[in-house]
Amino acid sequence: MPVFDAQVRIANPDEHSRVQAVYAAAGYRREIDPADTVWLAESAGEAVGIVRVAAEQGVLVLRGMRTAKHAQRQRLGTRMLGAIAEWLGDRECYCVPYAHLAGFYGQIGFGEIEIIAAPAFLAERLADYRRNGLDVILIRRPVYLAGVRPSVSSI
Question: Is 148 exposed, middle or buried (0-12, 13-18, 19+ CB in 10 A)?
Fold first, then answer.
């Protein structure tokens, strides 16, 4: 099944149980708020990618990007990031990814920040993940002024 022709779209609110099932199949166990904006990448009716942006304590947080094993290494994640960047526009967004993914998220302007510059709940989340042995960093996509922001090429 060619993933390059996968469609990336925002999931409808009535697809919450499907979103939960896709995440469960990918081993993602975090709670999903029905108000989260969730992107699905689909190919031939199969969900092959998922990611969400949650509004948490007044800030946007990109969370839970997952792609099906057979869909990895085919730029699907980059396409999903492009859709998120377009949706975000000039808004600020945070993320707590694995350290080795810094360059991946950097494609749309995310850059590592000091813990002191983070909202307290995200600094606490980062510390908690690290206490559990995860090699994660805190990144932020800043507010872009005058419409100048990075874009993902070849989307």
Answer: exposed
| Exposed e or buried b per residue across 50-82, where buried means at least 16 C-beta atoms within 10 angstroms of its C-beta | bbbbbebeebbbbbbbbbbeebeebbbbebbbb
Q: pLDDT in tens for each of the 155 residues of the chain?
A: 444 578 899 999 888 888 888 888 888 888 888 889 999 988 888 888 889 999 999 999 999 998 877 777 778 889 999 999 999 999 999 999 999 999 999 999 999 999 999 999 999 999 999 999 999 999 999 987 545 555 555 44
Say how many Å lie between the first and final Cα of the chain, rounded.
Answer: 19
State phi, psi for 17 to the nearest 5 degrees. Answer: -65, -35
CA 143 from centre of chain: 17
CA distance 137 to 116: 13
- For residue 78, give both structure tokens: 């980059």
pTM over 0.90: no
